[in-house]
Amino acid sequence: MNDASPNRPSRKFYTQATSLLGVVTKVEPDANDPGFVVRCRSGDEFRIRISVETWFAVLRNTDDLDRDRVPNPQDFDSEKPVDRLRKYVCDGDLLAVEGVVIDHGGETHFEGRKVTLLAIQPGRFLFEDTHWWLTQIACFADEWLDDLFAERRSYRWDDFAQFYRSNLNILGQPTDENVQECATLSRLIYGLSSCYLLTGGDRYLLAARAGA
After folding, report:
1. Do the strands 107-117 and 55-58 form a parallel or antiparallel pair, or are they unpaired?
2. Three-class DSSP category at 62
3. pTM for the full model?
4. Domains and CATH numbers, the chain
5. 6, 66, 149, 150: which has the fewest Cβ within 10 Å?
């Protein structure tokens, strides 16, 4: 992360927002300088500093429900960064980290701002559960249909002719052009059909038929 080229002057002060995905190889619960080390797929390792500004979270689906079920360790104090580190970070965990790289005075630090857990139990990733994908595609399909047809729950082909537009202006509003792009419409029908096949919801079947 440091530029060691003798022909380039060292940076006196430099910051950059960065995101990482990697496996925790070391946890350092030092009360004065808590942090952990992440090894990325490239083999590069980064030490992540934890502070009072660091936010720990569990991966959320498109429904945005809080899935944090991580138990509190003994004598847990949520105000202490080192205690939140003890609670959320363990050796071998696959984590996503968002933070800021700070290069100042010849030293480089990675200040963690958000640490996202991909699993609550070791080795059991949230996105490997069947309900994860059922919830996700239903959220997508509900949003598509609600945006297009508002309170309607049954659909006919003329609903698509009246409300569906593949040409929008810069504000996301329909234009005077009423010609629909077949490729765009086919992707919507494919998504609605997939949602019906996965969930069995009649609403998605009706919409897919009307679109076809």
Report:
1. parallel
2. coil
3. 0.76
4. 13-126 (2.40.50.140), 129-211 (no CATH)
5. 6
